Amino acid sequence: MRNFECANVRLAMMALCLLGTSSICLADDTKPNSFPAKTLSAPPTLDGVISEGEWAGAERLTGLIDDNTGEPVGDQTELFVGVVPEGVYVGFTCLDSDPSGVVALTKQDGIRFQGEDFFVIVIDPLNKKDWNSASQFRINPLGARSEQIAGGRAAKREWTGDWKAAASKNEKGWSGEVFIPWGILNFPDGQQGDCLINFARWDHALKVESRWAPLTLRDLVERNGVMTGVQYPEKPKETTKVEMLGYLSPEYDEDADPKYSFRSGIDFRIRPNSRVTGVLSLNPDFKNIEGVVDGIGFTRSERFRAETRPFFSEGSGFFSPNGQHGIGRLFYSQRIDDFDQGIKFFGAVGDKDNVGILATVEDKDRLDAVFNYRRQIDSRSDISFFGTARSDGAIQNRVYGTSGSLSKGNWALEHEFAISDDSGDQSQAGSLSINYEVPRFFTLVRAMYIQPDFEARLGLVPFTGYRGVYSYSEYNARYNSGPYQRAHIDLYLEDNEKFDNSNFSKTAEFNASLTTRSDINFGVGYSTHRFEDEPEQITSVRLNFNASHPYNKFGASWNVGQRDGVYSSFVNAYASQRIAGIDFGLQQSMFRNGVTRHQTIGTVGWEIDKTRSLTARFVQNEDDSNWYLAYRNAGGKGLEWYVIVGDPNAQTARDRIALKLVWAR
Asked: What's the predicted TM-score (pTM) here?
């Protein structure tokens, strides 16, 4: 602890060292790969088989590069790309020297692939060279689809957009065929232009990702490829269609009053052009959406909970005023636990301008709202202006400010500044950071302050009333041969004081991990910390087997030390296994810090087929336990239905059964 008085000096020296390396800079002027758009005379049959002659007239591409080595991979991928007035077709053959090693696990659409082979198409008809504007479409060897469409989409297929895909294994490896209609993307109506496009393949056996247009280890968006001379269709001239997404949910709850209830709600969506979306939501259903289970590990601040509710997750990037590692999340959608009516508008309102506006009303008394405008300067630089508001009786809270980044070569300068007005009491917060990044290495130094009365009632700002500086550095390496896959090291230092110059927090934390070729992950860490007058020293160890496998893996983590003179430990062990197509998971945690707490989480999942699944979860925290069982028939077009026994988000088990019907048009 005696070295903490020198923390500011160390951080200043680190910043000077970084400035001294400014002569090391990656070239950013590399011309991206490109090819001309070629029109197909007849669309291919989407059966997952690249048949002789059916891709005649398409552009043929190959030569995928491993960004880790900068060299072409040994097992190449053959690509075929062609356009029709309605959209773009992509065919591919993933050649594999050991076809028996192709891994395919997921049957259902909408699941992010992990621990298996898959192919990715990155596309942006607006060619904005901005990751927020690029859509990604993934397919695995079983033909399961997963998409991330720019701007976000609700989960129902009619609203997500129906793209087609098929895949099959063969004696060469595996192949697939995809059709993406322009209508589900943001595109320039009736214009001719260049389309940002790239293709990537994950080879799970070799643990190698290859790309047609290499992005370097820094994932530089401006190095994605381009399909030139695309003629985009005109949006129909008729009146803009209003789409609807509704639900009905009768339920019986023994502990409720009344026991029998009937809930319903509806969302209306309008897209005045192919770039923007407006949604009106009336009485949404949040009760039957499974939330994230809060862990019991030690934390001095409120625990962050990921968002799972479609109204907030759809287009969420347009409503995020700032990052999470500075003064905090200035819009944290979990602050809006429920609402009666909600409206949002989001999208690209110009070639470089994005906007998000969201407002909700509950019980006619509480109004919550957020506004965010983002101007893209270039592919890695932008500036945003934002505001949030909560009006709830005597509480009138407003937060407004600006954030942004300016990048050049290996360097980036980031800022955020916000003013809060809480029923007349004003306060400020801000941060300024400098980042330096080269392949495998990243470092950041950030100075920040949050005045004592700063209040963001729609945000998640863990602490107020301090000022200081912190530094974070990490090194990452990936190996294509030898006994190891990956190595990671990071170092975090902070020195913060209160506005009366007394100590707020001082920290030094180090972590390292290594992943072997056989998919065993081992990690260690050490931290020394003083929060106000409370000292702590914690050592951590973790070990995971089959670390990248989504179903068949197990592992444990352990940290132990002293917190304010009291022995403290946290042990977490987990295991998951797929048996006869049914996935079982078990997690057990124990936390000791003067008192002992336990938590058990058990899960069961069965992907019956492409649209039907059965899931169950059991959670026990000390004397409280809860469980639920859900049957799902969803994922395609038409009527979807669910049966839920229990309450997914209750603290204790409830004698409840609910039926939920969902439709869209």
From this structure: 0.85
